[in-house]
Amino acid sequence: MSDETLTCVKPLFTRSALLRLIVPLVIEQFLLMTVGMVDTIMVTTAGEAAVSGISLVDTINTLIIQIYAALSTGGAVVVSQYLGRRDSDNVKAASSQLLYIMIFVSILLTAVALIFRQHILSLIFGRLEPAVMDNALIYFLLTASAFPFIGIYNAGAALFRAMGNSKVSMYCTLTINLINISINALLIYGFNMGAAGAGIGTLVSRIAAAVIIMTLLNRYDYGVRVADILRFRFQGDMVKRILFIGIPNGLENGMLQVGKLLVLGLITTLGTSAVAANAIANSIGGVINVPGMAIGLGVITVIGRCIGAGEIEQAAYYTKRLVMVSYLCTAAMGTSLFFLAGFLVDLFNLSLEAEAMAVEILRLCSIGIIFIWPMAFTLPNSLRAAGDAFYTMAVSQCSMLICRVAFSYVFACSWGLGLDLLGVWLASVVDWVVRAVSFIFRYKQGKWKRIKVIR
């Protein structure tokens, strides 16, 4: 659809509306990256055992948060489509059911984590030094207690994003950071509580975020008010619609983490320098991808609203427009990364060998980010928003296992290529290419236009 065609019908989103949605999302994603990092950075004064314990537990917490994000995406798609249809009754029903799902799942995960936390840590990480295990158990106990509040917050933030109001989640994320940093500073630096202090800071900040988001959902009627949330009413059909998107998305995110762990197992065999270079490259690459990830969240809202309103042509138009914006952002970030890779890596005081490897893989990554990343990760969110979540799950899982995992071993360990860590990252870029081609094919095929999530 061209701009001229849009003038014939009322556009669902103006340029200013898109900016109001996406800019706060970009800021929010940058803020979210700092929440987990703050605990690790501030606890360094408590020693290596505390740092190691927190870092290990955070890998588990990241998986839990991604499960929440996947379920929230399912709710956001359903709510967005009902908002597009202007069906306020089903908007409120879907919002309530999403909150019930998140509360149930988070309580279940909390119970499992609290009861079996030592077994979980031993199963995943093997035999740990006693000091590391003690710190990990304390931090896991406190952060697992925060799971229900994280779930509630994720659901509330998704609902506000579905409304196109991303400022609320941005300000909430800023509040989380300020509370977490303040409590960490008091308990870690003032009372020398180490991992316990970091865990308490996380717990209190997550409770505050959940209270704030629920207060706003109850106080202001943005079209998704849930004032009667305590009047429990289970609606099976609505839950199925949410899980129709949420379960495939959750499996996709979960398997992605499993794939990363399998690849990490390979990287550990390549030596300490490779492990250090990979960790730094992941940290820098995560920051570079933030604008693209934020635009992807915006795509869920925009395309969901268009599909719900029956405006398929507008959905196609906004998909092209937002993917193009994603390309512009990733091109700017990727180009900067290519030329500044050496400077950025220098900030981490790595060995010369690790520094050389980190610069090499970051430059490879930057090329993939510039030319491939938006089609591999922004475009599929348009398919998910239309309800085509099973296809995106199948493509992502197959590509991850075959390209990212299997090819990592092929490129790094065989064929006499001698690529080592570069081969692992080359496999990731191949994964992106396969995803991009598959999603472009599916989008051009047009089946996503005929999928019905809401009735």
Quick summary:
This protein is mostly helical.
Can you walk through the features of this model?
The chain has 455 residues and is mainly α. It is 83% helix and 0% strand. The chain contains 16 helices and no strands. Helix 9 runs parallel beside helix 15.
Contiguous uncertain segments of 5+ residues: none
The helix-strand sequence is HHHHHHHHHHHHHHHH
Q: What is the strand content?
A: under 5%
State the helical fraction: over 70%
Structural class: mainly alpha
Number of H/I helices: 16
Major beta sheet, specifics?
A: none
What's the Cα radius of gyration?
22 Å
Task: Report the count of strand segments.
Answer: 0
The coarse silhouette is: globular
Average residue pLDDT: 88
Topology:
Blueprint: H1 3-6, H2 15-42, H3 48-85, H4 88-125, H5 130-145, H6 147-162, H7 167-190, H8 194-219, H9 236-267, H10 272-288, H11 290-308, H12 312-346, H13 352-371, H14 373-385, H15 389-413, H16 421-445
Helix pairs in contact: 2-3, 2-7, 2-8, 2-11, 3-4, 3-5, 3-6, 3-9, 3-11, 4-5, 4-6, 5-8, 6-8, 7-8, 9-15, 10-12, 10-13, 11-12, 11-14, 12-13, 12-14, 13-16, 14-16, 15-16
Describe this protein with a few key phrases.
83% helix; 455 residues; globular; 16 helices; mainly alpha; 0% strand; single chain
